[in-house]
Amino acid sequence: MPNTKSDKSVGPADWTLIAKLSELNAQRPLLAVTLNERKYVLFQNENGELGLIGRHCPHRGADLFYGRLEDNGIRCPFHGWHFDRSGQCVEQPAEPEGSEMFKAIKVPMVELKVEGDNIFALAQ
Ligand code: FES
Protein backbone atom coordinates (compact mmCIF):
# COMPACT_ATOMS: atom_id res chain seq x y z
CA MET A 1 0.00 0.00 0.00
CA PRO A 2 1.55 3.30 -1.02
CA ASN A 3 2.15 6.05 1.48
CA THR A 4 -0.47 8.51 0.28
CA LYS A 5 0.00 12.19 0.98
CA SER A 6 -3.09 14.26 1.62
CA ASP A 7 -3.84 17.86 0.79
CA LYS A 8 -2.18 20.33 3.14
CA SER A 9 -3.29 23.78 2.15
CA VAL A 10 -0.94 26.55 3.23
CA GLY A 11 0.73 29.60 1.89
CA PRO A 12 -0.12 31.80 -1.01
CA ALA A 13 -3.37 31.67 -2.92
CA ASP A 14 -3.30 28.73 -5.29
CA TRP A 15 -0.22 26.83 -4.17
CA THR A 16 -0.70 23.78 -1.97
CA LEU A 17 2.04 22.12 0.03
CA ILE A 18 2.06 18.49 -1.10
CA ALA A 19 5.31 17.06 0.22
CA LYS A 20 8.83 17.75 1.37
CA LEU A 21 11.89 17.09 -0.73
CA SER A 22 13.33 15.23 2.24
CA GLU A 23 10.42 12.75 2.05
CA LEU A 24 11.55 11.50 -1.34
CA ASN A 25 13.45 8.26 -0.96
CA ALA A 26 16.81 8.45 -2.66
CA GLN A 27 16.44 4.91 -4.04
CA ARG A 28 12.93 5.42 -5.36
CA PRO A 29 11.95 9.11 -5.30
CA LEU A 30 8.24 8.69 -5.82
CA LEU A 31 5.20 9.51 -3.68
CA ALA A 32 1.46 9.07 -4.16
CA VAL A 33 -0.29 12.43 -3.80
CA THR A 34 -3.98 13.33 -3.61
CA LEU A 35 -4.74 16.89 -4.65
CA ASN A 36 -8.31 18.19 -4.82
CA GLU A 37 -9.51 14.57 -4.66
CA ARG A 38 -7.48 13.63 -7.75
CA LYS A 39 -4.71 11.06 -7.59
CA TYR A 40 -1.19 11.80 -8.80
CA VAL A 41 2.34 10.50 -8.53
CA LEU A 42 5.13 12.84 -7.55
CA PHE A 43 8.54 11.76 -8.76
CA GLN A 44 12.03 13.03 -9.28
CA ASN A 45 13.79 12.13 -12.51
CA GLU A 46 17.47 11.35 -13.02
CA ASN A 47 18.16 15.06 -13.64
CA GLY A 48 16.71 15.93 -10.22
CA GLU A 49 13.61 17.52 -11.77
CA LEU A 50 10.21 16.93 -10.17
CA GLY A 51 7.02 15.89 -11.89
CA LEU A 52 3.45 15.53 -10.61
CA ILE A 53 1.38 13.53 -13.09
CA GLY A 54 -1.88 11.59 -13.10
CA ARG A 55 -1.57 8.32 -11.25
CA HIS A 56 -3.52 6.07 -13.59
CA CYS A 57 -2.23 5.01 -16.97
CA PRO A 58 -4.58 6.05 -19.79
CA HIS A 59 -4.15 2.65 -21.45
CA ARG A 60 -5.74 0.23 -19.00
CA GLY A 61 -5.63 2.22 -15.80
CA ALA A 62 -2.60 0.62 -14.17
CA ASP A 63 -1.27 2.47 -11.14
CA LEU A 64 1.84 4.42 -12.13
CA PHE A 65 2.87 4.49 -8.47
CA TYR A 66 4.13 0.98 -9.10
CA GLY A 67 5.87 1.94 -12.33
CA ARG A 68 9.59 1.95 -12.95
CA LEU A 69 11.50 5.20 -12.71
CA GLU A 70 13.77 5.25 -15.74
CA ASP A 71 14.89 7.44 -18.63
CA ASN A 72 13.74 10.59 -16.84
CA GLY A 73 10.17 9.38 -16.43
CA ILE A 74 7.87 6.60 -15.26
CA ARG A 75 7.30 3.40 -17.19
CA CYS A 76 3.88 1.82 -16.63
CA PRO A 77 4.18 -1.54 -14.85
CA PHE A 78 1.60 -3.20 -17.09
CA HIS A 79 2.49 -2.70 -20.79
CA GLY A 80 5.38 -0.30 -20.50
CA TRP A 81 4.05 2.99 -21.79
CA HIS A 82 6.55 5.61 -20.73
CA PHE A 83 5.65 9.09 -19.45
CA ASP A 84 7.86 12.10 -18.83
CA ARG A 85 7.41 14.63 -16.05
CA SER A 86 5.06 16.73 -18.18
CA GLY A 87 2.72 13.73 -18.38
CA GLN A 88 3.49 13.23 -22.06
CA CYS A 89 3.68 9.64 -23.26
CA VAL A 90 7.04 9.28 -24.97
CA GLU A 91 7.08 5.57 -25.84
CA GLN A 92 4.73 2.64 -26.42
CA PRO A 93 6.88 -0.50 -26.66
CA ALA A 94 4.23 -2.75 -28.25
CA GLU A 95 3.34 -0.34 -31.06
CA PRO A 96 4.76 -1.02 -34.53
CA GLU A 97 8.06 0.66 -35.32
CA GLY A 98 7.49 4.18 -36.60
CA SER A 99 4.16 4.59 -34.82
CA GLU A 100 3.66 8.07 -33.42
CA MET A 101 0.47 7.33 -31.55
CA PHE A 102 2.27 8.11 -28.29
CA LYS A 103 2.35 11.79 -29.24
CA ALA A 104 -1.41 12.03 -28.76
CA ILE A 105 -1.35 10.49 -25.27
CA LYS A 106 -0.87 12.52 -22.15
CA VAL A 107 -1.81 12.18 -18.50
CA PRO A 108 -2.71 15.23 -16.41
CA MET A 109 0.17 17.15 -14.91
CA VAL A 110 0.32 19.81 -12.24
CA GLU A 111 2.84 22.63 -12.08
CA LEU A 112 5.19 22.53 -9.09
CA LYS A 113 7.49 24.89 -7.27
CA VAL A 114 10.04 24.20 -4.56
CA GLU A 115 10.84 26.54 -1.70
CA GLY A 116 13.50 25.18 0.61
CA ASP A 117 12.38 21.66 1.51
CA ASN A 118 8.74 22.31 0.58
CA ILE A 119 7.13 21.16 -2.66
CA PHE A 120 4.04 23.10 -3.71
CA ALA A 121 1.54 22.21 -6.42
CA LEU A 122 -0.55 24.74 -8.29
CA ALA A 123 -4.10 23.91 -7.27
CA GLN A 124 -6.58 23.48 -10.13
S1 FES B 1 -1.94 -0.08 -18.54
FE1 FES B 1 -0.24 1.23 -18.76
S2 FES B 1 0.69 0.62 -20.59
FE2 FES B 1 -1.08 -0.65 -20.44
Keywords summarizing the entry:
124 residues, four-stranded mixed beta sheet, binds FE2/S2 (inorganic) cluster
The average pLDDT value, as a whole number, equals 91
Instruction: Name the shape in a single word.
Output: globular
Classified by CATH, the class is Mainly Beta
Rg over CA atoms:
14 Å
Largest sheet: 4 strands, mixed
Low-confidence parts lasting 5 or more residues at pLDDT below 50?
Answer: none
Could you say what the CATH topology is called?
Rieske Iron-sulfur Protein
Strand content: 35-45%
**What is the annotated CATH architecture?**
3-layer Sandwich
SSE topology string: EEEEEEEEEEE
Whole-Å distance between the termini? 26 Å
CATH superfamily: Rieske [2Fe-2S] iron-sulphur domain
**Structural category:** mainly beta
* Beta strands, count: 11
Account of the protein in words:
The protein is mainly beta. The chain has one domain (4-123): Rieske Iron-sulfur Protein (3-layer Sandwich), CATH 2.102.10.10. It is 0% helix and 38% strand. The strands form three sheets. It has a four-stranded mixed β-sheet with strand order 1-3-4-5, with no helix packed on it. Strands 6-7-8-9 form a four-stranded antiparallel β-sheet, with no helix packed on it. A hairpin with a 4-residue loop joins strand 8 (82-84) and strand 9. The two termini are 26 Å apart. The mean pLDDT is 91. FE2/S2 (inorganic) cluster binds next to loops.
SSE layout and pairings?
Elements: E1 4-5, E2 15-20, E3 30-35, E4 38-44, E5 50-54, E6 68-70, E7 73-75, E8 82-84, E9 89-91, E10 112-115, E11 118-122
Parallel strand pairs: 1-3
Antiparallel strand pairs: 2-11, 3-4, 4-5, 6-7, 7-8, 8-9, 10-11
Bound molecules: FE2/S2 (inorganic) cluster.
The site of FE2/S2 (inorganic) cluster has 9 residues, from loops.
